[in-house]
Design goal:
The structure is a homodimer. Chain A is of the alpha/beta class. Chain A is built from six helices and eleven strands. Chain A has one domain: 3-Layer(aba) Sandwich (Rossmann fold). A seven-stranded mixed β-sheet of chain A has the order 5-2-1-6-7-11-10, sandwiched between helices. Chain A has a two-stranded antiparallel sheet with strand order 3-4. Chain A is globular. At the A-B interface, α4 and α5 of A face α4 and α5 of B.
């Protein structure tokens, strides 16, 4: 069983959080939700899913978690405006432990300058940002590069979850 | 009097469209709204402003316009996922005519690869993307670099509008 840090804010893409969260939990892993305000409820952009923030990201210790999961939607754009969220991602990436990003999730990796030389996918609107950050972009449902698992969009979720769970096994 | 192309989609930052639009019109300029579906109504993220798309961006001719205005919010993220919107921005930038961007508006300039070597500002979440695109980022209410006028956020609107109007005079 792994403890997964979920870095999330409001306006996340509902199924990109809800479906992996369901499957990670069913597989016996524990989720801890990191965000900008402890105890706050953040909701998805479709208003179908809600998450309560367990831990302030600025106070979270990377050693506590076995993996980092960043759902997409506009949540990553909101989080990357806050230095403490970017700094957590930067420190977590240094550990080499698994990182799972889907859709706009890679925006936080870009802000943390952690994808230089890596191979990754993401939502089509950010392909230029991914390339400009020094990474190789591949347009496929799931891309694995060492500890990094990435996907593009909600239709990729089954392949994404399968790859993430394999990384945790 | 100038004809200004406004490149816009849903989830724009309401005042970043509405206030400049009001002031540009009051100064005698004409606005033409370019978007992804002609005749569609697109609404701001705060649901305070609505815009009807006059012209399909894929059919718009750059020669028709004297300036390009890209409001912020999540509208630029939606537009940059469509190649015809990125292509319009690229072709417009080649003309050297005035370009006005605020908040996330610079995301479209990044996708069009048009800010390499330029000096620009934008919403704080995209500062890394701006730098990675080869531009110099300055954190101030309005930045002017030749034909390019940029601002960061709603509180910058008065300075932004003043600089834009000066560029059109």
């Amino acid at each position: 069983m792994s403890r997964i840090a979920v870095l999330i804010d409001s306006m996340f893409e509902d199924p990109e959080y809800a479906l992996p969260a369901r499957d990670f939990t069913a597989a016996g892993h524990a989720l801890e939700h990191l965000g900008l305000k402890k105890g706050a409820e953040v909701r998805g952009k479709r208003n179908e899913a809600a998450v309560t923030i367990d831990t302030l990201v600025g106070e979270a210790l990377v050693d506590r978690y076995d993996a980092l999961f960043i759902p997409g939607g506009y949540s990553p754009d909101k989080l990357r405006a806050h230095q403490e969220a970017v700094e957590f991602v930067r420190r977590f990436a240094e550990t080499g432990k698994p990182i799972f990003v889907i859709c706009h999730g890679a925006q936080l990796l870009i802000s943390a300058d952690t994808i230089r030389g890596r191979t990754i996918t993401g939502w089509k609107s950010i392909t230029r940002d991914i390339k400009n950050a020094g990474a190789t972009y591949i347009d496929q449902e799931v891309v694995e590069d060492g500890n990094l698992v990435s996907s593009r969009q909600p239709s990729d979720i089954p392949a994404f979850v399968k790859a993430c769970l394999h990384k945790l096994s």
